[in-house]
Structure formats: C-alpha cells, structure tokens
Write a structure and sequence with these properties.
alpha/beta, six-stranded mixed beta sheet, seven-stranded mixed beta sheet, disordered N terminus, about 500 residues, 25 strands, binds nicotinamide-adenine-dinucleotide
C-alpha cells in the first residue's frame, strides 16, 4: 500500500507473473487517475529489468509443456475463457470505466469486441491446418505445418485496455505460444482481471503474464533475447521506434500506430444519416479511438446542411461520468491530455480556421474531472496543426472540397491511413472509392469500420509498421512460423545412389 498527497491510502496495481499477483520491488510507480473526478485512485508499479526478466523466464519455462498440449485441449481452454469473460462482462467494463473514463455502455461494447477474438481463437484446430501435396514426385509428399514462436510480448495503449490485449493473447496462446503483456500504465487494472480469468480457464501458470510499467519495461522486452515477437498498439512515434528496435534485435514485430480518419460525404448522401454517423464516430469515447472520425470531408453542397445537422446533434450529447446512466460521453484520460486537446482551438483560430463550436465553453469543461465539451472546427486545411496532428479528443475538423477527386487526393496525401469512410447513395462512386483510396480499413456508409475478428485489423502507411495486420488470419500467421516437410518412405529394394540435383521424377 502507498499513500500520495491526498492522504488516502491507495493500492498499488502490480504484476501477474507465474500464475499469481506479484508485488513490485522496483520502488518505481505512477499514479492512476479517476478521470471522472480528477483524483488519484491508485498507483501502478513500474517494473524494473529484473521483474521483466522474471516474467520472460516464467513464460519460457512454461512454453515446452504448453506447446505440447493437444490442440483440442488448447481450444477447450479458449472456450472456457470465452465463458468466463462473457460471465464477467460487467465487472470488466466497470473497472475499465473507472480507470479510462469511457461510458459503461461503451466499455461493454469494447468487451464484446474483445470477446469476438476469443471466439475466433476457439477455432484454432481448424485455423492451424496445413497444406498437403501428395506425390509431388514418385513416392514423395510435401506438407506444411505452422509452429508457435515461443515467448511473445504485447504492449498496449490506454484507449482499449480490454479489447487490444484480447486482439493479441487469445490467438497467441491458442497457437501454442506463451505471453508477456505490458498494458498501458494509465489504466492497468483490467489486465489483472483478465489474467485471473485466464488462470480460471485452466491455462497453466507462466503461460500468460503481465508486467506493469513504462519505457523501462518496454525497452527490456525489446532487447530480451528470449522474446521472439512483439505486438504493439499505440501512437505512431512509439510504434515506429518499437518496430525499428525490435526488428534490429531480430524479432518479428507488428506495430500499429496513430490515425487521422477521414469521413467523405458526397452531395447525394443522406445528410441526416451522415450527421448521425459523424457525431457518433467523432465523439464516441471522447474521440479517444484510433478509428474515430477526426476529419469530415464535405464535398460541395453537402457542407452547409451537414454542419447544421451536426451542430444540432452535438448540443444533445450527454457528457458526464461514465458510470452515471444516461451519459453518452465521458472525460478524457488525464488532465494533461485534456489541456493539450483544448489547445487545438487556439491554434486553429490563429491559423485561420473557424472554431464553430468550442468545447471549452461547455459547462462540463469546468466541472471536476478531465472533461471537455465537444468541438467543431470548420474551414480546416492541411498544414494547420488541428489537421496535421492526431488530436485524440472530442474535436471534429471539417475540410470543404469541391469534388470527389479533391476529397480522394486529400485522404491519400495524409501520412496516416488507418480508417476511412465514404457516405453516398451512389454505389458506383463508393466502389470507385474503395478501389482508389490508400487506407487499410474502409467503411461504406459505416463510420468506424473495425473489422470483425475473422478478418484482420490494420492501417497502412504511418498507421502500421510491419507486414501483418493484427488478429484474425494475419494474427495466426504472425504468431506462428511455417515449416515445410518433404517426405519419402521408399521401398528399400528400389534405393540407389544418385548425385544429381533432386528433381521431379
Ligand atoms: P502510447 O504510444 O503513448 O503508449 C502505448 C504503449 O507504449 C503503452 O503501453 C506505453 O506505456 C508505451 N510507451 C509509451 N511511450 C513509450 C516510449 N517512449 N517507449 C516505449 N514504450 C512507450 O499510446 P497511448 O497514448 O497509450 O494510446 C493512444 C495512441 O494509440 C493513439 O495514437 C491511437 O491512435 C493509438 N492506437 C492505435 C490503434 C491501432 O490499432 N492503430 C488502436 C488503439 C490506439
């Protein structure tokens, strides 16, 4: 137990290593805030090198036995985990809301999307089936098997403390690997609840571990010789650095980064529907989603009616603590982040944009907690800070363009390429867009096109460093490596010496 300035005794969220909670000895920790009140609610341990090494050692020790466990047993374990997470949806969501701030309904949605990934992993016996070619030469068969890599690490962001770890470890474990998770230090507790459910599902001790911490823990995972692959999700500068360091150290790395997601609205779109989608996509989870709509690209005559419709809807959003029923948007993650998001209103004005709705003027912005009202910035252009940066808050930029081609060029010139949406009633235009746009995930009349668990999630350009996307079929490929076997069971009677290069006979 530790105390901080409030004088209240605060618990310290610690590690889960070798199948149990392990108090930290590092002497380093951070504060976990309650974003709805602005008060510190606990501490989180920051692992030192020795603690990371212990987690990796436990994972390495558990690997041979877990890898040898029958596929059907690993699948059975995933089915049990699925039941346990399902039964604990509310408990996970409440804990998540307490530390992250998002509304309970939103948190329940996050858990549901995480659960899909466990359901996918339940099908692992089918997913790991290899190919077999009989008689590639006389009496010779060739087949491919996929094998686990060993100890893997996952490093996750604050904005989805349940879903993003669930994007990673169910598939990793089902494939026969062992895992060390380093969750965000801003909302660390959900990881421990998940670890306990993993244990209850019958996963042997050491197969799944959690180290809490900051850069010290991440750097150690990146250089540890026994960590074979890293899945990272977070901001672009960190994703790039993790990709570069991890691959330099010989590891397989997939590093998903930040985003600036555009929603293109063509003049023929249903304006009411597009406004509903823009408001939901921009302000859900206070804009702290990597797939949030942050730029509305209004084509020609769509702009004025769309902006009016959006403004009307913005006034009706209920903002308040996430655990209070009826609220649709909660606070931001920290006071520091709230202030940074708010600062974009000043820069936008000074750079010539029009701040049509300034969230700082909303009464909610002056209540305790890290609240900020919703903002709408019109007449935004590339080169302005509010356009170029990922704001990651409840701010919707509007860029007005004259034509479809101008809209397409704008999207394709952006350095990020995570998600994009087009709203139109013209199937031909939508089909053209889907083909032309250089972005990893596309929504057609869908504002947040997060793929279901049996596809894979990933952006292009500065939104993803690596070759394989996260979860789904790419996830299984990332967490395994292929081995091709060429086999012959000859009749000894036909055997002879042949020094020629093997060829099809
Ligand atoms: P972040 O990059 O600050 O942190 C992510 C993780 O990296 C955390 O575990 C953190 O402890 C660690 N970390 C932070 N700085 C580090 C450093 N210098 N060296 C090593 N490790 C470091 O991201 P965040 O603020 O937690 O999350 C928000 C960001 O994540 C946004 O940019 C958002 O777009 C992105 N995100 C992307 C996706 C996606 O799928 N592409 C999904 C969710 C979030």
């Amino acid at each position: 137990m530790a105390t901080i300035t409030t004088g209240i005794e605060l618990k310290t969220v610690s590690h889960w290593i070798g199948g149990k909670l392990l108090p930290s000895r590092s002497g380093r920790s951070g504060v976990v805030w309650n974003p709805a009140t602005g008060e510190a609610q606990s501490h989180v341990a920051f692992a030192d090198v020795a603690e990371v090494d212990l987690a990796v050692a436990k994972a390495k020790e558990a690997f041979p036995e877990w890898r040898a466990t029958a596929l059907s047993r690993r699948a059975e374990t995933m089915f049990r985990l699925r039941e346990l997470v399902d039964a604990n949806r509310k408990a996970i969501a409440e804990l998540l809301t307490l530390e992250h701030g998002k509304t309970l309904a939103d948190a329940m949605g996050e858990v549901a999307r995480g659960l899909e990934n466990i359901e996918f992993a339940c099908g692992i016996p089918n997913l790991l089936k290899g190919g077999f070619s009989e008689q590639v030469s006389r009496g010779v068969d060739v087949y491919q098997i996929r094998q686990p890599l060993g100890v893997l690490a996952g490093i996750t962001p604050f904005n989805f403390p349940a879903m993003v770890p669930l994007w990673m470890f169910p598939n990793a474990l089902a494939c026969g690997n062992t895992f060390v998770l380093k969750p965000s230090e801003k909302d660390p507790s959900v990881s421990l609840l998940l670890a306990d459910l993993v244990r209850k599902a019958g996963v042997p001790d050491g197969v799944f571990n959690v180290v809490q911490g900051d850069r010290v823990a991440v750097d150690r995972l990146l250089e540890h010789p026994d960590v074979k692959a890293i899945s990272f999700v977070g901001s672009t500068p960190v994703a790039k650095a993790i990709y570069e360091t991890g691959t330099r150290n010989g590891k397989r790395v997939q590093a998903l980064g930040g985003a600036k997601n555009h929603m293109v609205v063509l003049p023929d779109a249903d304006i009411g529907m597009a406004a509903d989608a823009a408001v939901s996509g921009a302000f859900g989870s206070a804009g702290e989603r990597c797939m949030a709509i942050s730029v509305l690209v209004a084509v020609d005559s769509a702009a004025d009616p769309l902006i009016d419709a959006i403004k009307q809807r913005m006034q009706k959003i209920h903002i308040g603590p996430g655990l209070e029923p009826g609220n649709e948007m909660g606070p931001l993650i920290t006071g520091e982040h709230r202030d940074k998001v708010a600062s974009y209103m000043d820069s936008a004005k000074s750079e010539g944009a029009e701040v049509t709705v300034d969230g700082r003027e909303d009464a909610v912005s002056s209540r305790p907690g890290f609240f900020l009202g919703t903002s709408l910035i019109d007449r935004v252009k590339p080169g302005m800070r509010c356009y170029d940066d990922e704001i990651f808050g409840p701010v919707l930029n509007v860029v007005r363009v004259k034509t479809y081609n101008e809209a397409l060029d704008l999207v394709n010139s952006n350095k990020y390429a995570n998600g994009v949406a087009i709203f139109t009633r013209d199937g031909g235009a939508a089909r053209q867009f889907q083909s032309d746009v250089e972005v990893g995930m596309v929504g057609i009349n869908v504002p947040i096109p997060v793929p279901v668990a049996y596809y894979s999630f990933g952006g292009w350009k500065a939104s993803l460093f690596g070759d394989l996307h996260m979860y789904g079929p790419d996830g299984v490929q990332f967490y395994t490596r292929a081995k091709v076997v060429t086999e012959r069971w000859p009749d000894p009677g036909t055997s002879s010496v042949n020094l020629g290069f093997p060829q099809v006979r």
